[in-house]
Amino acid sequence: MTDLIKISPSILSANFSKLGEEIISLDKAGADYIHVDVMDGHFVPNITIGPEVIKKLRPLTKKIFDVHLMISPVDKYIEAFSKAGADIITFHPEATENTSKTIDLIKKQQKKVGVSLKPKSSINLIKDHLNDIDLILIMSVEPGFGGQKFMPEVLEKLKDIKKILSEKKLKMDLEIDGGINFENCKLAKDAGANVLVSGSTIFKENSGNLKKNISLLRSN
């Protein structure tokens, strides 16, 4: 089972004064994806980075850039993030007037499509789009800031989605993001997640030993 688990370190917890070095270190430490949180100060109460930063980071690694857009309206930024080097573009249904249109815009850029659900967002927001997407991101904190405490109540939603996908015989990444640590990562995997996003745990535990922390999240 551990071979199927992918680790997507969130650079939100990285040292932004040496972000390039952090990306190279994550690559060497065995990260599967690089998780990039993009916040606009409007859809969520924080501002992070834009396409230009991703463009500068892109040549430093061949790892998949897992870009989570917490911006609204989202459609007008998809092309910019695609050209900057995103491999997976994940958006929130609440950030668009037409989920199908946003999915199509991402596909036209030949990128993988992710849809994210906040802790209180209903599965119904994505039920009609399951055949058209590549990843579902379940937020286990309210999006906007790193370092928040894991919300175990979202595990039921994860289990429900896993069941629906099994019934429909659909395969896609089930990703979870928010307060993931060495203890609750097992709960997330048992509930159906195969991609774990983690920031603080990867960058701060065990004196910042990235390789050890990625390995522990994968195997615990």
Q: What do you see in this structure?
A:
The protein has 8 helices and 8 strands. The chain has 220 residues and is of the alpha/beta class. The chain has a single domain (2-219), classed as Aldolase class I (TIM Barrel), CATH 3.20.20.70. An 8-stranded parallel sheet has the order 1-8-7-6-5-4-3-2. It starts with 5 loop residues before the first strand and ends with a helix. The model has no long low-confidence stretch (mean pLDDT 95).
Class inferred from helices and paired strands:
alpha/beta
The biggest sheet amounts to: 8 strands, parallel
Shape: globular
Helix content: 25-40%
Largest beta sheet: strand ordering: 1-8-7-6-5-4-3-2
Using only CA atoms, what is the Rg? Answer: 16 Å
Q: What would you say the CATH architecture is? A: Alpha-Beta Barrel
Tally of DSSP helical segments: 8
CATH homologous superfamily label: Aldolase class I
- In round numbers, the mean pLDDT is 95
CATH topological fold name:
TIM Barrel
Which stretches are low in confidence, meaning pLDDT under 50 for 5 or more residues running? Answer: none
Overall CATH class: Alpha Beta
Domain module count: 1
- Beta content: 15-25%
For the secondary structure, the number of strands is 8
Order of helices and strands: EHEHEHEHEEHEHEHH
N→C terminal distance? 11 Å
User: What's the oligomerization state?
Assistant: single chain
Write the layout of secondary structure elements.
Elements: E1 6-9, H1 19-29, E2 33-39, H2 51-57, E3 64-70, H3 78-84, E4 88-91, H4 99-108, E5 112-117, E6 135-139, H5 155-168, E7 173-177, H6 184-191, E8 195-198, H7 200-204, H8 210-219
Parallel strand pairs: 1-8, 2-3, 3-4, 4-5, 5-6, 6-7, 7-8
Helix pairs in contact: 1-8, 2-3
